[in-house]
Specification:
Elements: H1 6-12, E1 24-28, E2 32-38, H2 58-75, E3 83-95, E4 104-114, E5 118-127, E6 130-143, H3 144-149
Antiparallel strand pairs: 1-2, 2-4, 3-6, 4-5, 5-6
Length: 154
């Protein structure tokens, strides 16, 4: 039984299809979260990555980790609808095994350091208990209104 289902995740994160990469949260503690991404053959990215050997791009695995981290950061905030969690750094990313259609990606994020508006987390992605990727991510909390008013940069 999930702690948070897809509708509850959608109420927390601003991401939407095709870029919402967390299907459910199965564990949620003050400094740790575990999310699930069901990798299906009809994911848009498989059309080009790679048609004859579909592999989930590593950057999307890290993005899925960051989204799970975003759930952890935003879940307890009463004004979360006015906030964004922005990814500001990725460190020590390693990709150990391909993630393919049919896999269930388990995303475990643990807080290393946390300040008022910045959090650094260690992430591990596994499939069937086997480590497929790991990375440390840093995210920053920002006000949505401030981000919407900034001009776009190239």
């Amino acid at each position: 039984m999930p702690i948070l289902d897809i509708n509850e995740i959608r109420a927390i994160l601003p991401h939407r299809y095709p870029f919402l990469l967390v299907d459910r949260i199965i564990e949620l503690e003050a400094d740790r979260v575990v999310g699930i991404k069901n990798v299906t053959a009809n994911e848009l990215f498989f059309q080009g990555h790679f048609p004859d050997f579909p592999v989930m791009p590593g950057v999307l695995i890290v993005e899925a980790m960051a989204q799970a981290a975003g759930v952890l950061v935003l879940k307890s905030m009463p004004d979360r609808d006015k906030k964004l969690v922005l990814l500001v750094a990725i460190e020590s990313a390693k990709f150990r095994k391909p993630v393919v259609p049919g896999d269930t990606l388990r995303l475990e994020m643990t807080v290393i350091k946390r300040k008022a508006s910045v959090a650094k987390m260690a992430g591990r992605a596994t499939v069937d208990g086997v480590l497929v990727a790991e990375a440390e991510v840093m995210c920053k909390l920002a006000d949505k209104e401030e981000q919407e008013q900034k001009p776009a940069t190239a």
